[in-house]
Design goal:
The protein has three helices and six strands. The protein is α/β, with parallel strands linked by helices. It has one domain: Rossmann fold (3-Layer(aba) Sandwich). The chain has a six-stranded mixed β-sheet, with helices on one face. Helix 3 links the parallel strand 3 and strand 4. Helix 1 crosses helix 2. The chain is globular. Bound molecules: adenosine-5'-triphosphate (ATP) and magnesium ion. The site of adenosine-5'-triphosphate (ATP) has 13 residues, from helix 2.
Length: about 150
């Protein structure tokens, strides 16, 4: 999951929105950790307990990573705007866990990463990942090979 995050990071640039779906413990934060490594941002990507969003500034001249855990974000986007992140979302890569149905208005162009645990998998360690691009930003992009 972390390695996939690193690979996805190579495709991302300022203004991109990534929505991560998958049940509790699917690996959303782990993938975001890889994204942070791939983007070269400061600070460890962790699962925020009380914080809804965390900004990881770039260690170089790349965009910051804004990591949002929308699990407790009942009000959706309005609440997100109230977070006062002190960073411009269009100049950042914004990654949202549990964002489906809440933050789509942020951008017409979105990358969706859906993580599924294999049903009936006794080892419980296998994940199936689907990467989809929505909107003009991702039209023609070959994302299928990133699904695994
Ligand atoms: N592909 C994988 N195989 C085995 N373990 C994994 C895999 N991906 C993640 N994990 C492990 O599963 C646990 C939960 O991962 P993680 O915190 O990334 O999930 P999450 O989707 O962010 O969960 P939450 O819904 O609570 O935010 C971690 O201990 C992580 O190391
Ligand atoms: Mg998480």
């Amino acid at each position: 999951m972390r390695d996939l995050g690193r690979r996805l990071a190579k495709l991302l640039r300022a203004g991109d929105l990534v929505l991560l779906s998958g049940e509790l413990g699917a690996g959303k934060t782990t993938l975001t950790r890889g994204l942070g490594e791939g983007l070269g941002v400061r600070g460890a990507v962790t699962s925020p307990t009380f914080v809804i969003a965390r900004v990881h500034p770039s260690l170089g001249d790349g965009p910051p990573l804004v990591h949002v855990d929308a699990y407790r974000l009942a009000g959706g986007l309005d609440e997100m705007e109230d977070l006062d992140l002190d960073v411009s979302l269009p100049e950042s890569v914004v990654v949202v866990e549990w964002g489906e149905g809440k933050v789509e208005e942020l951008a017409e162009d979105r990358m969706h990463v859906d993580i599924h645990r294999a049903v009936g998998d006794t080892t419980d360690e296998v994940r199936h990942v689907t990467v989809r691009g929505m909107g003009a930003r991702w039209a023609g992009a070959e994302l299928g090979s990133l699904s695994a």
